[in-house]
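User: Some background: our group keeps a shared notebook of sequences we're curious about, and every so often someone picks one and asks for a predicted structure to add to the entry. Today it's my turn. The entry only has the sequence so far, pasted here. Could you supply the structure so I can complete it?
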Amino acid sequence: MPAAVVVFALLLTGCGASLTDTPQSGLAPGLAATSTGAVTSATDIASANSSFNQVAASVPEVAHASKVADKLTAVATPGSTAYKIGPLDVLDVSVFKVSDLSKTVQVADSGTINLPLVGEIQATGKTAQDLERDLTKQLGAKYLQSPQVTVFVKEYNSQRVTLEGAVKKPGVYPIKGRNSLLQFLATAEGLDANSDSNVLVFRTTNGKRTAAKFDVGEIRSGNVQDPVIQSGDVIVAGSSAVKETVNGLLKLIPAVGMFAAL
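Assistant: Of course. Here's the predicted structure to add to the notebook entry:
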């Protein structure tokens, strides 16, 4: 957004100079001299006005895009209620007034945890609230009357990548070595039938979030480089439904895989 504001200001300055200066004698019709002495055609002025209007319109779009990005990346944000549990996360599971069933567990690489009475249960891909509901249902069905279960993520997986959208197996995956976008999509068992081949990658560096758009078909054909994925990245595979949600965001991101600020 700061970049858009800077461009906005520069265009405003340039347009102001071109429109307020009067043509100097001796210039051909349709030409004007700016305050710097440069000769500008009427066509250039019209073009500058058009650019000014486009950038001005993009400022609220950037704000909207940031909100959309917040929603899409919440699944990977530690502390967010939308955060989805991933392998190697450490969970505090407590059952009110039943200390024997309350324990701290680490999510296995397979995505499961093992608890008394319940046994092995899938945890990855679920929020803490989702897991609470599952445990409450299982404990209440056989063992306890109206159990009160609380799940708290004590330690977040420090090396993780989140895959969302039109992939066959969305979830949070650990990073093991140097992995590319196509490798992570393969880990999620590939794109599903509803995918439109476009993938958004959200990245946060030094507190600033950026996003890039990639065409998986172009990467597979070798026309575009397969990008390296970093810890904390959120990969959102596009579909018609996803595109409707992020339509404004897509307009702000170059189609060549360049990361743009949000």
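Suggested note for the entry: The first strand starts at residue 31 and ends at 33. The chain has seven helices and 13 strands.
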